[in-house]
Sequence to fold (499 residues):
Amino acid sequence: MTSLQSFASLLAELRVIDWVAPVVCVICAAALARGITLRSLVDRKLAEMGERELELEKAAMTDAVTGLKNRIAFSRDLETLLDRGGQGEVAVLFLDLDRFKEVNDTLGHKVGDGLLKGVATRLREMLPEGDTLARIGGDEFAAIVRIDPTRPVDDLAIAIVEAVYEPFLIDDHVVHVGASVGIAKGMRPTSSADELLRQADIAMYDAKFSKTDSFRIFDERMSNMIALRSSMRLELERAIRNDELALKYQPIVDSRTGELTSVEALLRWPNSSQGEISPGDLIPLAEESGQILALGGWILDKALLAVRELKNVPIAVNVSPIQFRHHGFATIVSDKLLASGVSPDLLRIEITEGVLISHLDAAKSTIRQLRQMGVVVVLDDFGTGYSSLSYLQNLDFDYLKIDKSFMKDLGRRQLATQIMRSVIDLGHSLELKVVAEGIENDWQARLLQLLNCDYLQGYYIGAPMPLEDLHKFRLNNDVREKLTRASAETPELPSAANG
Ligand code: C2E
Ligand code: MG
Ligand code: MG
Fold:
């Protein structure tokens, strides 16, 4: 007999079955009922866990400040799109804010966060619903753009740059920033997500360093530029150390007498491995690499030496925004003036609006310190920015230099002439001396004379030249005759000036 059979006969003997059966039934029913409740409880718990997991996953894919997708989600979306097996072109758009760090540093992180949210909202409004938009770094945004033949990506990039350029109002602060945009185009399914993002990043970088464009579309040449930039950095270091850089000097003359009144020092790097590099490229490179203070110091030293050689002809030195914003800038200038023995009124510091944006108070104080020393302060490239009038009202400049871009249509289009007249009058009404730069022909020179512009500068007067040639320029100065001759040859100009 098995043990089970003997156990059953024992229970029968004890008549246990009679009372055990109902108890077992009750227990079973209760267990069953409880089992069901437990089951639904488990289901509910599982569902909750699923939701939590989804929430956690969503949080891991979302940028906490803007609510946009983050870099991980962006890469995943891009990979999915490329792997899905479909065909056709896609574009990755990479946007980096200009001057975001300045906003954060000067107005604080709360305003910085507000700015990022504002940018995110504007970008979202500009992109078709369903297109991935993400914040992929501190001030970097990226979007996956489906190529639409009716709307070229170039147009979208321009529209985005313009939208970001519009001022933001954040906690009572009016904040101005810009954007640099890079675009990389790829084909499904062959392109790789990482490569597309890398190329868009390179194109953005190229746009940032371009003086003319705010967006660029990737091409292979740009990869070479990256290598070039890193080698140039080392070369520049060596060039500063070995005194391989040079300054050229461009004459600035009195518009009535043609006499040399000052010169502008312009940086040149004659023998770099890349041939002559324009200061427009070199200065941003030095700013980026942290070499601008050393370079700016070298330029000031060299210019002050030239003033001594030129026997009291004032010299204008361009100062980059980062150099000007350095907290010790006024002290550096004062020390250099003392060391060189040059009188402060022979030094002119040219700054552009870039210096003033987001740093108005600091700029105000530096301008005040320079002027108190007797140094002359010039607002350069006037008219190329977008809020020049408020800067003019709030800051004490001595000179206003009208940007050369105004020169193009002067004397040819009536409106250009009228604008020039208004700008000169505006400068005079604020008791500023007005300089016009970029004068390339007698027509422009004569007209500016008639419009009462105080000083003239440009190839027509004299191109930037080495110091030795400036001595010759002074000795054989024929600008006065040129201006008179110009006046005789352009008899119809007075009516253009009037109209
Ligand atoms: P900027 O200060 O407005 O200098 C005037 C620019 O116009 C110079 O270009 C000059 O060579 C050019 N120019 C002069 N006359 C004419 C003309 O008649 N027609 C035309 N089309 N152009 C003329 P450059 O030397 O290439 O300098 C470009 C910019 O680079 C300067 O603009 C200035 O912002 C910056 N820069 C030049 N030298 C220095 C420097 O030593 N330090 C710093 N921080 N920036 C510098
Ligand atoms: Mg200048
Ligand atoms: Mg200028």
Observations:
- The first helix runs from residue 3 to 13.
- Residues 250, 265-267, 278-280, 283, 299, 318-320, 350, 380-381, 404, 437-440, 458-459, 464 surround C2E (ligand 1) (CB under 6 Å).
- Residues 491-499 have pLDDT under 50 and may be disordered.
- Residues 68 and 134 are 5 Å apart (CA to CA).
